[in-house]
């Protein structure tokens, strides 16, 4: 069985080309969120506009291999949740890309992660 | 929100305010080899019920079904599990199921129609569909360069799948309706109302009513299917549940047969009959376990009679099966325990002895140690060897010092081995001889040494055993810790990265490259290496195009010649016809560059065009006499199947061991690759001819016990046909046999001792 090609979306991302997309989330409003794992950033594609979120690093809002991501919460509480795998933390952003908060550090207790790779929202 | 916490092997639940709300899952491996070598997992391998399956081995993806159940890609265990809300784990796709087997699932997507799309680490896509995902349909990508990032879009894009092929263009694809039932099922298709879960449930509550509802055809059919499935997976010892169900069915079948023959259904005859059937089947399983030396299977099998026991009518449980069960249990548990104790005892004794024997002749120490290594599976004998070290007599049972050991002996005598060095040497030898588990056990002891130097060396060598055991995730952890402590570990780390790539763990390779870059002091020296690792990983994990994009980045800080070299290496990735095309272009574009022709030759050989491959290689040698092509030549000849050519080519390369022509080593490698009679005989004939034409050479051949029968005839023929050759047979390891063939007066030890 073959995958049938439907459409293609050009992503006019600045800087280095995307090497592999680890995860994608598709918002109801048509925006596409993707983790550009090897460039350590998350891209928000809204039509022709591309917003770059983050860069390599350990500061709030920065990433070191962002992996799984999802959108969770309803209405004004809607957030973009990203697994920041090698910083061993979860970061949360507004749907527009502003950093909200992050939690977790390396370890195996509560509030500890060791390479979080995927996330599912409660309302999914 | 639910978070898949990969290296903690758990799923964590967090509330919207970020508060932790519990987690479940633990580390659990279904890998026989890994279990045997990990004491923690060894404990978990002793099953009480199917809860043994309740854990993960570095999972990479999960999705949630509309009912709330999780489907998890349990990557390291090569399976997909469903976790119900009550915490029950069940296999959707068990270990190694499918044809070809599903290999390390890395990504999942749940489609709106209920299908489950799975991507495996080797970039194959599989659609699981039908009741309980019993059908599997491979999915072809529109473009082979497309790498998938799974997504099921909302609204109008429902069912759409995104693919990425580089160049910053995201493709949206669509999957047509699967053609139900035309493909062979992964799992036996449930027969009407019967499925695995039902049978297990009913067997647990002594479902005699249930079995009466079955026709024997249904039972037969299910049995047949169960066995079909279990035959394959039994070898990996993973799908015991299916086998267990087959056992239950066999029992039911026996009862049903007895009933049809007019015998009382719950009466004495029926049950005795069924207990005999069960016993016979248990014996078969035990024999299988024994033959494979599968410890986990022993343990698993032990629990089986107990399960069957509960199926019998209460009055008969005690008297009929218990005796037999107890016998098997004692026999096997005894054997299992005995070995385990021997092992611990040996290690303990070894440590004690080594402290005492530091003053003895090092060669003797080695000899004793070697005994342990040879017999690492027969610890009782090994203990005797060690005890012998106290006395003056040479035990006859001790195997002669093998050829390859001589360099170590020289090393040992030159360096005045201390006890702790001897222990380290023991580990090294075990490693060299492929007894990785033994090496691992000793290194663990050494790593706790109060001497920081010893401990560090043990940890560093531990990386090699970890890699040899293919425990890549653990290796990444070792690299992380060691690099943080000492940048001198970089060389080891880069070896670990290449090993990860060679076994298909591309992400791990990239992670290690990252760690190297972070730890490196001299970036100029390491960046070329990490660039190569990254590019190779990218080429295989994503696509050749992605690798090229990456190389553009590297071009700013790496010399163009090196970029071209990397490019020629990664050009081999992907479909062979495309590789050939790429490489021939490179050869034409850069006629004076060393490298592309080597890769071209490999590609040609892989494509079966051996003469062209040799010609390409000849051209490379003509242009670059200093570049060694011998490994490619050996590879080509081996692919072609002409072992003597491989051996002669191998002889040209530097000797691996002083005094032993590499030809002999190559010959060993070639011999091990062969497993069918005509080729073994052909190999022996070639070897014979080779020995005739190269006076003074000798060959060593390693075979498994199974091959022994057919080789010994051939070897005896060779020995009989010429009095110029001597054939010696020795046992090698617990299950191997080794033949040396050479001139009557050859004495490998003497040669090497010089």
CATH architecture of the domain at 2-174 in chain B: Beta Barrel
Largest sheet of chain B: 4 strands, antiparallel
Number of helices of chain A: 0
Question: Which overall shape of chain B is indicated by the principal axes computed on the Cα atoms?
Answer: globular
**Class from helix and strand fractions of chain A:** mainly beta
Principal-axes geometry of chain A comes out as: globular
Strand order of the largest sheet of chain A: 2-3-4-5
* Proportion in helices of chain A: under 10%
Q: What is the count of β-strands of chain A?
A: 12
- Summarize the biggest pleated sheet of chain A: 4 strands, antiparallel
The total count of helices of chain B amounts to 30
Beta-strand residue percentage of chain A: over 45%
Radius of gyration of chain B, taken over Cα atoms and rounded to an integer in Å: 29 Å
Low-confidence stretches of chain A: none
Low-confidence stretches of chain B: 36-52, 180-260, 262-336, 353-420, 643-677, 748-754
Provide an overview of this structure.
The complex is a heterodimer of chains A (124) and B (754). With 124 residues, chain A is mainly beta. In chain A, 0% of the residues lie in helices and 49% in strands. In chain A, the strands form three sheets. Chain A has a four-stranded antiparallel beta sheet with strand order 2-3-4-5, with no helix packed on it. Chain A is globular and about 45 Å long. Chain A starts with a strand and ends with a strand. By secondary structure, chain B is of the alpha+beta class. The longest helix of chain B has 43 residues, at 314-356. At the A-B interface, strand 1, strand 2, strand 6, strand 11 and strand 12 of A face strand 1, strand 4, strand 11, strand 13 and strand 14 of B.
